[in-house]
Amino acid sequence: MQGGARGSYRARMSDSTREIYKGKVVHLFVETVTLPNGHTTALEVIHHPGAAAVVPFLEDGTILMVRQYRHAVGGYLFEIPAGKLDPGETPEACALRETEEEVGHLVGQLEKLGAILTTPGFTDEIIHLYAGYDLVPTASATEPDEDLTVVRMPFAEALARVERGEIQDAKSMAALLLAARRTR
Fold first, then answer.
1. 146 included as an active-site residue
2. To the nearest whole number, what is the mean pLDDT of the chain?
3. Three-state secondary structure along 113-142?
4. What ranges do the domains of the chain cover?
5. Which CATH class is domain 51-183?
6. Residue 144, pLDDT above cutoff 90
7. Is the pTM here over 0.85, yes or no?
8. In whole angstroms, what is the distance from residue 101 CA to residue 134 CA?
């Protein structure tokens, strides 16, 4: 992992790399590496371009979430708007684009909350987390492969749903909890 947008991690050093699969979302490699302890091993690594996610706050303190079907977990999840970075796109631009596409609002002010490494045991995916303010309604433009409904929810209710285990999506949990620390 490299520094900059990805954080302050040292670059990965692979003895050899073999591509296994390249799809729309994942790019899977088997990398033979020598670990810092001197042991050599083969690791499966998914390379990902990164993503951005936003907690969109309306003026009355409610937020906009999506209830989105996720086939991999077999049902619907409550999530904040999020999406994968397009080639050459900054995390901020992605956050603005995804908020407009998924919940139909332009973001006037974007505040960085942090970033998470989703599952560092096998992927380099990083999701940049933001809070969005000064929202202006516009048309949404969901993708054909997205089954989602926009849900307006009091911020306190979203936090309570995290506490009760009703919001289980990690990026949404992290962003909501980070936003709560800033609003208290």
1. yes
2. 92
3. EEEEECCCCCECCEEEEEEEECCEECCCCC
4. 4-47, 51-183
5. alpha beta
6. no
7. yes
8. 16
